[in-house]
């Protein structure tokens, strides 16, 4: 596996980045726009560097910050991957398989994944991906910060045929299932405030993950899990919200890739003062809220919906999460445009469903979300 060195002339004050030139030089499909309806069905083509069928995805809101790509492994086949000089979050879109890491001493370490498994692929570590399905190909999605990295060191060879491996990721229990951690117990986890989060390299199934905690400030009686991976600034969180509910509109920095593990619904995204973009979604859909665009998620299906947000490094997290001033980060139900509720209830009616939100959320600024969450989830924590 080799990477051709791309050394384009620098473009001052341009929104075209070194990564864009490299990506387009790979001669595989690049999917753009505001969303991908189903990552399991997008067009792929042969990627010489990866020795597999693949596609790159660069949605509005990712440019220059994060990268996503989808690869496919044929039925019963294995794919060898040389060490990369950047970390990635892997997410299994369908099928079952194995990842085998080849450690410097020649030892091997293997873990199994299934649909909606999430795991970290550590830098400077060669590995092999194996499709355990004997009759069909499987697809994986990878999320990374390569666009940012290439803006700092604009030499593709550095990332794909880079320095020898260090000690990262070599412990035998590296892929033990993630464990719960209290605030401030690990490194710089203080940014999560008082939230408990899960710390590790392997999350077996984000579709079925049941260790969730109340996320009342975002509305809808929702629950969430916050995921931190060791020795990397990549992180993630997942939120679940009940049938017939929707989340409060909020905004933050760029680059968060949101994939749907379960459910059916839509999201609305808009830059303040401009037209809204409607994003329909289902399992395996992907979208990226652009920088400082408000966005809002709606469950119009018949099961609790989940979205999984993969985060870029901390400097791109953007606005604070707890501000309730409309002029800043979050729009309360009482302050939102009435057409938001009207559209939601109309979509539910088409499916024979009704809103699960208490009408008081539209009139009481201090609505008791803790009580609502208890009614929806029992104790409010899964």
Number of helices: 5
Query: What overall geometry do the principal axes of the alpha carbons give?
Result: globular
Named at the architecture level, the CATH assignment of the largest domain is: Sandwich
Strand content: 25-35%
Low-confidence stretches are: 1-6, 185-194
CATH class of the largest domain: Mainly Beta
Q: Give the overall average pLDDT.
A: 85
Q: What is the number of strand segments?
A: 26
In the CATH hierarchy, the third-tier topology of the largest domain is known as Jelly Rolls
- Category from helices, strands and their pairing: mainly beta
- Helicity, as a percent range: 10-25%
Sketch the major β-sheet. 9 strands, mixed
Oligomeric state of the chains in view: single chain
CATH level-4 homologous superfamily of the largest domain:
Jelly Rolls
Radius of gyration: 21 Å
Give the termini distance in whole angstroms: 45 Å
